[in-house]
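Tokens for chain A. Residues wanted.
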């Protein structure tokens, strides 16, 4: 087989949740062409999912060395960097925003990092992009509301608060209740 055909077969197997077989095809493709992007990226995804973060990072870095504008590799490398707390995750997520299919997920990850930095206006912008095509998790709704209160966009947080309240019945770990109490306190503080 040609390396590209092996890489393509690996990608198809990966999409069909046949990880072990996909790994074999990716490895065979890389034996024949060590710079084959689909095989490098697919193997990186498998390592990321297995929690092998160092190996995954190296593979995504190899993809970016061959294709510097590969938004998917930038996104997955950013996920690794975010998990390890190393490097330039914000910069990599920003690169991933250029790919329309990755923009919502990259926006959510970027918002979470910006929230941790206390950059609440950036958080609001990122969540605004994400909300157009994804349902936010309760944690993301909370961070969006908190950031809205911090940036005096209090009227804008009402829809997210309503979504949190609608999810309250499913609050098995108490997070939503605590979030609503915290947000209520922030709103009262902001009104004074």
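Reply:
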């Amino acid at each position: 087989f040609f390396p590209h055909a092996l890489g393509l077969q690996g990608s198809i197997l990966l999409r069909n949740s046949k990880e072990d077989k996909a790994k074999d095809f990716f490895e065979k493709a890389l034996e024949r062409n060590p710079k084959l992007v689909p095989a490098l990226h697919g193997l990186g995804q498998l390592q990321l999912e297995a929690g092998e973060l160092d190996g995954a990072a190296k593979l995504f870095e190899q993809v970016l060395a061959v294709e510097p504008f590969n938004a998917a590799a930038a996104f997955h490398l950013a996920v690794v960097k975010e998990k390890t707390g190393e490097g330039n995750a914000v910069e990599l997520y920003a690169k991933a925003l250029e790919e329309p299919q990755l923009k919502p997920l990259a926006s959510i990850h970027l918002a979470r990092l910006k929230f941790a930095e206390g950059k609440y206006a950036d958080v609001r912008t990122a969540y605004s992009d994400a909300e157009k095509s994804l349902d936010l998790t309760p944690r993301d709704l909370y961070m969006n509301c908190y950031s809205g209160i911090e940036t005096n966009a209090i009227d804008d947080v009402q829809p997210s608060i309503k979504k949190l309240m609608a999810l309250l019945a499913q609050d098995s770990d108490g997070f939503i209740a605590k979030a609503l109490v915290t947000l209520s306190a922030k709103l009262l503080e902001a009104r004074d």
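The radius of gyration is 20 Å. The mean pLDDT is 89.
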